[in-house]
Amino acid sequence: MAWFLHRFLLSLVLLWVVTTLVFLSIHMVPGDPVELLLSQDGGTPDRATVEMIRKDLGLDRPVYVQYADKIAGIARFDLGRSIVDDSSIAQGIGRRLPRTLELIAAAAVLSLLIGIPAGIYAALHPGGLFDRAGSYASGFAQGVPVFVVGTLMILIFSQLLGWMPAGGYVAFERDPAAHLRFLLMPASAIAIGLSAVVFRITRASMKDVLPLDFVRTARAKGLPEWHVVRRHVLRNALMPVITIFALQLGGLLGGTVLVEYVFNWPGLSGMLVGAVNARDYPMVTGVILVVSALFILLNLIVDILYGIVDPRVRK
Question: Measured on CA atoms in the order 251, 171, 270, 159, is the torsion positive or negative?
Fold first, then answer.
């Protein structure tokens, strides 16, 4: 229990460090955000208007006061308000974040269902046709950019075959079948590259564990092959798979921009791009902090999984 508590407290400290760095980085950007916002139409903003808006937003106060307010707001889950339309940042993120998480979760499930069984089979039959074909295919899948995969999928399955919609979004509660149809192609576009990573790591890790002494001992006892693979080989081979997979998922939290853009999926990445284009610094800060918090949470979950899979880690 002490080990889990230590990891949790360390995650909180890391979140505070990230929050501080993001806050300082935003304030080090040259230019006044209010002036940039008001001058987007090409005109010169009135100085009195700029000062009034700066006062309303609290930007006229010292930096350390703004920092203290930011930390206090985050502690009560208040990320502030947008300087563009005065909307709640937390509510905006709350609407879009589940869509991005759903997209990533669907891609993760697909990649695990494909990558782990394929990696196990390839490791158990080294040098075979499936092993060689899987290695070539996974290398190719990792090298093709996700926006190219998405564009090709739209061309083939939407334009030529007419099986799937080219893009868009329908709420699940409104039409579950249509929601899943809109979700399938963007999730598959992400899962292709992710499953290639899972396949290669699973295959390599399995091949490292198979020749070890305890595996030979288990086989010498006459245990069934699948029992040896499932109870002895796979459990010890999962550690690097969990590590790499978690890192890949963490990257997807901020890396779904192109997929959401290609398939017109209204997720968090599109919100971040819109906030950057509009010079909405509070919104940018809020999105970055949420993504960072999710990444830290994901690493905490991985640490806990380490402790469950291999109790030696807790010592």
Answer: positive
CA–CA separation, 297 and 315 (whole Å): 22
Tokens linked to 202:
């699973």
pLDDT in tens, 160-201: 888 888 888 888 888 888 888 888 888 888 888 888 888 988
For the residues of 268-282, what is the DSSP string, one character each? HHHHHHHHHHTT-HH
* Domain regions of the chain by residue span: 90-314
Contacts (Cβ under 8 Å, ≥6 apart) of 288 = 22, 272
CATH topology of domain 90-314: MetI-like fold (1.10.3720)
pTM: 0.76
- How far apart are alpha carbons 251 and 263 in whole angstroms? 19
> Of the ranges 35-44, 47-56, 142-151, which is most confident?
142-151
- Between CA 3 and CA 313 the distance in angstroms is 9
Euclidean distance between CA atoms 300 and 315, whole angstroms: 17
